[in-house]
Amino acid sequence: MPETYVAAGYSIPVEMIMQANKDIYAKKDARHLILKSRKIGIDPKAASASFSPTAHAKGNGHGYRVVAATKFEAKAICFALRVIPASNRTWLPLYHRHGPCSPPPSGQRAPYSTASILRRDQVRADAIQRRLSRKGPSGVSTALGTALGLGTLEYVIAVGLGTPSVRQTVLIDTGSDLSWVQCRPCSQPPCHRQKDAVFDPSKSSTYSPFRCGSPACARLAADNTTNGCSGSNTNRCGYVVKYGDGSNTTGTYSSDTLMLTPSDLVVNFRFGCSHDITGFADTDLTDGLLGLGGDAQSLVSQAGKRAFSYCLPPTASHTGFFTLGVPRVSASRFAVTPLYRAAQSATFYLVKLQAITVAGRRLDVPPSVFSAGAIMDSGTIITRLPPAAYRELRAAFRAEMINMYPPAPPAGILDTCFNLTSVRHLRVPRVALVFDRGVAVELHPTGIIQDGCLAFASNHARRSPGIIGNVQQRTLEVLYDVAGGAVGFRRGAC
């Protein structure tokens, strides 16, 4: 991964010097941040208020938060979103796919075990690193069209497809571009059981398959050499998505009307109409996938709004939300950091870490350790850090926890665990991630501890980019302003 980046939308000024444990910053840097905030439609006062890492990291002056242990547990009942997103954007409820808030399944089965989920998470993290290095496990170049694993995708939204509109419950994924749903004809197997009725293109008056030789098919073939019409006898454009965990989906590249809300339609939305799926477990039950990556096939590019956000709930028994479009200034309280793009793949959204604080104290990690950047990913569960940064975080977190809670055995990739049996109120050291421009974002307690363990892991290679996983994004509204070249964070949004 190269150490130099081109920021989307504007040039990057000289790195400012910041101290995470002092509230002293140069006024010219604050003014620079406010100007960038105005550029993407974010409240300058809010951006300025979010400028101090210690304002987030220390809060009321204490390095801990005391949280009821029940706050980490998913319940059997659904806790609906308490505050409706106040904006001029399209918004939809977002659910954990295995939680009680999720749209009713057709025979829900038990979800994956924690051990299985963590194994799948490592598969996805490894697939991301291979795509960015363009190397497969044996050193052979890997096609960028190869997608990431689906086993770790946890969040779904319900959209409508076709005319008349048919509800489809789809996974959201910032690591994918091409969207797809299961379509008839599709038997079980080769298709898996799903929450809603399988989409029948013959019953939609607006459905249209792309033909061989069409510009859309040519663009798809250019993105991935396994797509297009090579060897096809039907004159219909075919697509293939091969995932890093061995699963895959194949079918017809098509277009139809996508309904996000009754007043928000994406006409001629391009997607894969899947007739054959392999490698998916019976616990998936979702109808398909909505790609939110940065390339041309994604919803973000097709809708033309070039900005979206989501808020992932604290547990599976709460709801979050997904929005499309830039927020109103009056409704925004975002801390803003530049958005970077990887030269190897247009799909990924990158940010740059500068530091990490634990209990209000900055870790002794040189900024150069974070030079490879970090990918914002809705599909990776556990955040991956450079080895040197993870070692410092682990040591600092252990030092804060060890006198309060006895250690417990590791759980897969999570090697810093504690015995929290019978604990009713948990003292959680505050952890903040400090991004480029000194933007510090304090994590929610459920974004720090997962199943009694520190919810971070180490990269294999020191020069590989980090990954900001979805556990650390809980309760934050994460705004991807692709056109404005920024990522925003708003705390306590869901």
UniProtKB/TrEMBL annotation:
Domain of life: Eukaryota
Keywords carried by this UniProt record: Aspartyl protease, Disulfide bond, Hydrolase, Protease, Signal
SUPFAM superfamilies named in the record: Acid proteases
A Pfam family reported for this protein in Swiss-Prot or TrEMBL: TAXi_C
Domain called Peptidase A1: residue spans: 155-490
Active site (record annotation): D173, D377
Single biological process term from Gene Ontology: proteolysis
GO molecular function: aspartic-type endopeptidase activity
UniProt record similarity statement: Belongs to the peptidase A1 family.
Protein name: Peptidase A1 domain-containing protein
Organism: Lolium multiflorum (Italian ryegrass)
Lineage of producing organism: Eukaryota, Viridiplantae, Streptophyta, Embryophyta, Tracheophyta
